[in-house]
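Worked example 3 (structure in, sequence out).
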């Protein structure tokens, strides 16, 4: 028995290891097509029945190794910039990867439960369940299995219909088909093993081949469109400035001179647009930004060149002598030095760029002075640019906004959708680790989804040019100025095609993911019925109704009002509300949901049941706190809040259920047989 446990543990570890080795910057991408097979082998036996009573545990083990290998740089980040000792950084790292491993744990449990009662082939069951889990589990650092295929253009073209979830589907489809084939070969007689490859696995192979054929056709179409499109020669400055060197008096003058010198070189080489990275301009600029500083001013941006430029700066909106708001802003200046567009970063790095509710939690800001407190932008915009007498649009994204599919869709919903995406980033926080390459790999999908090219200017790398088929055709290095003080600045220059937006993903969004989720829910209901324990819709629907009723009651009791409470719950429109109102609505929402969850848990625990309705309770809470955000709100950079609210509500409900069940048993009330 002990040997079996260790064997299963090692296979789970192997599965997680294969998956992170498939990611950037290990880049052994074929491993992802087989990486889940060891985990599936742990979960299901030769008859397709659960092999273990602990599928969640083994799924979590695989997930922790997969996430641990991909996010190892978190420890260094916390040590270097959070000033935490290793002994404090390591537990935070483990907590993060344990949370992000939930996708694997849930996947393992759901596959085992559904396979046990329905007999659906793992070939199709596994990818449908995986996509549903990827869709619904909000990540702190968003990623998909599809990240492993970022450098394989033929595979990822399906993302212009399905987004990254479709590529993840293909990968897990391959794993499921291979698992079914291996089991069929093991059971079949020697003369009949050929049949193992027929039927469902053959259909899976056909599906993959069809998607690869689609990818080949779409790449050819992109090449044709690019050949006939207007081109814009874009120069990128990657100055390789260390994170602690920015905005330091005495050093900032040198940094500005360096950016100017490199920009002058690019102009002499024919650049028609210049890109500087996020927060590359070393002086704060007053809002509203009208244009460049006068000739002779040391702060002048276009000093020695007149090429249009997009650059990152800190902009200040002063309300008084000591009262002001600061924004992380992308600014575009035309040939005459006039500001033709500004864009404020919508999604700030928590604890790096902002402290949630900083005014209300001012004691934390005083205790941790390293935390910046930028104000958040609320809208997307595009920048106009004239190229040989024609007007085009640039779509600005700052930092990790280029890895959020929902943000990309919102950007392309602009009345003047982008013909070229520009991303300005500062990944110096992470050094020369795999993170800058992982960031680039995730950004590749925005180009495929919308069939528009993307150029990235990253302070310490990886700066890159990505075409509308997701191919990276030029990139800079990733360096760590603190460990590589002799790292030289880099300039890149390439022609970018100005293309009309395309791809169905802009209109369909996560429809593919929702179809997989609906299928899993339907299979779940059928599974429970066949198991003789049908889903108790009364608890599920009634519980969700009680939770929403508590929100309505809170809207009537508290001055924040119902609209503010739901703005916070749905994460839709909350950025347009005053911070004090959002803070009040947040704790009021959490209070009402927690009280309602305690009452629901107490009811389920005190009322005798043959089987505690744990899944129905959790489902009712997720139907209130996660599903509405996914369907109606914006799952863009707010996953931490969704996780915290959902987690606290679930804990309240389950604790209340357990306490009341113990009280009932102590009073001599037994469950019915």
């Amino acid at each position: 028995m002990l040997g079996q446990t260790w064997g299963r543990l090692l296979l789970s570890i192997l599965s997680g290891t294969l998956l992170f080795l498939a990611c950037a910057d290990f880049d052994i991408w074929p491993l992802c097509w087989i990486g889940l097979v060891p985990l599936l082998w742990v979960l299901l036996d030769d008859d397709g029945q659960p092999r273990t009573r602990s599928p969640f545990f083994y799924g979590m083990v695989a997930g922790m190794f997969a996430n641990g290998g991909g996010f190892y740089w978190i420890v260094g980040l916390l040590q270097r910039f959070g000033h935490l000792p290793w002994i404090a950084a390591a537990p935070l790292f483990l907590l993060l990867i344990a949370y992000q491993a939930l996708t694997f744990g849930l996947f393992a449990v759901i596959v085992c439960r559904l396979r046990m009662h329905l007999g659906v082939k793992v070939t199709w069951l596994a990818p449908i369940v995986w996509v549903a889990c990827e869709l619904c589990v909000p990540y702190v650092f968003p990623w998909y299995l599809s990240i492993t295929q970022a450098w394989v253009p033929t595979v990822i073209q399906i993302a212009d219909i399905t987004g990254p979830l479709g590529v993840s589907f293909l990968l897990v489809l391959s794993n499921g088909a291979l698992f079914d084939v291996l089991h069929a070969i093991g059971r079949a007689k020697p003369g009949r093993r050929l049949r193992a490859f027929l039927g469902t696995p053959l259909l899976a192979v056909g599906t993959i081949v069809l998607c690869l054929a689609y990818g080949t056709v779409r790449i050819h179409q992109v090449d044709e469109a690019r050949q006939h499109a207007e081109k814009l020669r874009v120069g990128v400055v990657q100055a390789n400035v260390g994170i602690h060197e920015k905005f330091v008096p005495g050093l900032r003058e040198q940094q500005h001179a360096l950016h100017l010198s490199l920009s002058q070189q690019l102009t002499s080489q024919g650049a028609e647009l210049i890109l500087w990275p996020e927060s590359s301009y070393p002086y704060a600029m007053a809002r509203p930004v009208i244009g460049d500083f006068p000739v002779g001013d040391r702060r002048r941006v276009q000093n020695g060149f007149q090429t249009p430029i997009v650059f990152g700066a800190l902009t200040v909106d002063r309300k008084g002598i000591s009262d002001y708001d600061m924004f992380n802003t992308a600014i575009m200046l035309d040939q005459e030095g006039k500001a033709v567009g500004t864009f404020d970063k919508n999604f700030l790095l928590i604890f790096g760029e902002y402290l949630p509710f900083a005014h209300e939690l001012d004691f934390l800001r005083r205790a941790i002075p390293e935390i910046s407190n930028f104000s958040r932008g609320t809208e997307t915009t595009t920048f106009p640019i004239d190229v040989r007498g024609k007007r085009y649009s640039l779509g600005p994204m700052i930092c990790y906004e280029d890895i959020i599919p929902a943000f990309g869709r919102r950007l392309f919903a602009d009345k003047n959708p982008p013909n070229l995406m520009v991303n300005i980033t500062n990944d110096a926080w992470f050094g020369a680790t795999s993170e800058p390459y992982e960031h680039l790999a995730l950004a590749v999908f925005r180009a495929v989804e919308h069939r528009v090219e993307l150029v990235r200017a990253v302070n310490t790398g990886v700066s890159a040019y990505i075409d509308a088929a997701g191919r990276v055709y030029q990139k800079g290095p990733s360096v760590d100025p603190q460990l590589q003080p002799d790292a030289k600045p880099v300039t890149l220059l390439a022609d970018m095609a100005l293309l009309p937006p395309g791809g169905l993903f802009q209109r369909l969004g996560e429809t593919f993911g929702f179809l997989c989720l609906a299928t899993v829910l339907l299979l779940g209901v059928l599974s429970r019925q066949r198991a003789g324990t049908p889903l108790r819709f009364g608890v599920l629907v009634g519980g969700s109704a009680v939770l929403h009723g508590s929100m309505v009651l809170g809207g009537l009791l508290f001055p924040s009002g119902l609209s503010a409470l739901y703005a916070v719950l749905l994460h839709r429109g909350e950025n347009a509300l005053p911070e004090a109102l959002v803070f009040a609505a947040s704790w009021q929402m959490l209070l009402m949901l927690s009280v309602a969850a305690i009452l629901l848990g107490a009811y389920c625990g005190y009322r005798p049941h043959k089987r505690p309705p744990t899944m129905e309770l959790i489902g009712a809470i997720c139907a209130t706190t996660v599903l509405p955000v996914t369907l109606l709100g914006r799952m863009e950079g707010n996953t931490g809040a969704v996780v915290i609210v959902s987690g606290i509500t679930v804990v309240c409900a389950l604790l209340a259920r357990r306490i009341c069940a113990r009280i009932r048993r102590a009073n001599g009330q037994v469950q019915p047989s």
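Notes: Residues 2-224 form one domain. The chain has three domains: 2-224, 231-349+378-498, 536-666.
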